[in-house]
Write a structure and sequence with these properties.
39% of the residues lie in helices and 17% in strands. It is of the alpha/beta class.
Length: 289
């Protein structure tokens, strides 16, 4: 069997960004704001770098970007007041709260303070609930990116057997629901699943989001399957150098799957593109268009 066809997340994300840029320009021509405001609590180098890249991605498609940095010692009330102010600011059409937060803050509780219509990450209870009804304002952007990568392949989704490995509230569960709405037959597996390979080997579509490097190997994969690797893990090699790998053992699975996302170059660029598209979606809803 020949090696899997690599799903090019860079090419697909570039296409989405072009579409977003055109739509943002049209909104601006109509005098409508499109602004993403991100809240960063604490000032780690990694957090600052991520925010800088996010800001550049927004600017590249014409979205205004604002970063609000709060002291690492900010209280939950401080963060909640900041989010409430942004909720009521008509110039702000999208809000996100950077994770992780300092240990004394409850990220889940604080995310609930974000107005659903401005929740570009799609992580508020309202947006997660609307995914279950098949009527999301904004679906969780990582889950949506995974499903968009599946849809970029020739595989017909209707009636397809899909398995999602990982049951997080913002990736695994919503990805499973989004696939249900595509008329797939879906199984969710997790760390307590007995005989994981017995489930995953049935999958025509396999989405993996467990945060464990090289967790899924060829023995878990059905020949010709579409495999979407959501994981991004940093590992140390025997020579001391570091490498970014996914939750899927790329080398072994590539020889068995039909379509496979690489790490990096698969989910990474797509999550950014979908976040931008969600930001546009929020602005359009607020503008009534």
């Amino acid at each position: 069997m020949s090696n899997a066809q690599i799903i090019d997340g860079n090419a697909l994300s570039a296409q989405i960004r072009r579409q977003v840029k055109e739509s943002v320009a049209a909104l601006r021509l109509a005098g409508k704001p499109v602004q993403l405001t991100a809240v960063l609590v604490g000032s780690s180098p990694a957090g600052q770098m991520f925010a800088q890249r996010q800001g550049q991605a927004c600017r590249d498609v014409g979205i205004d970007y604002q970063l609000l940095s709060l002291d690492a010692g900010a209280s939950a009330a401080d963060v909640a007041r900041t989010l409430d102010r942004l909720n009521h600011d008509p110039a702000v059409t999208g809000i996100m709260l950077h994770m992780p937060l300092p240990p004394h803050l409850d990220g889940g509780a604080l995310r609930q303070q974000i107005q659903a219509i401005k929740d570009v990450e799609g992580v508020t209870p309202t947006n997660l609930g609307l995914v279950a009804y098949g009527q999301p304002l904004n679906a969780p952007f990582t889950a949506l990116a995974a499903v968009e990568l599946v849809k970029s392949t020739p595989l017909p989704l209707r009636g397809a057997e899909a398995v999602v490995v990982g049951a997080s509230e913002t990736v695994g569960k919503p990805a499973a629901l989004l696939l249900v709405h595509e008329r797939c037959t879906v199984t969710i597996c997790r760390s307590t699943t007995r005989d994981l390979a017995a489930h995953t080997r049935r999958a025509e579509i396999l989405v993996v989001a467990v945060g464990k490097p090289n967790f899924i190997t060829a023995e878990h994969v059905r020949p010709g399957a579409v495999v979407i690797d959501v994981g991004i893990n940093r590992i140390t090699l025997p020579d001391g150098t570091k490498r970014t790998v996914g939750d899927v053992d790329f080398d072994s699975v590539q020889a068995k799957a039909g379509y496979l996302t690489p790490v990096p170059g698969g989910m990474g660029p797509m999550t950014v593109a979908i976040l931008l598209r969600n930001t546009l979606q929020s602005a359009k809803i607020l503008a009534g268009v």
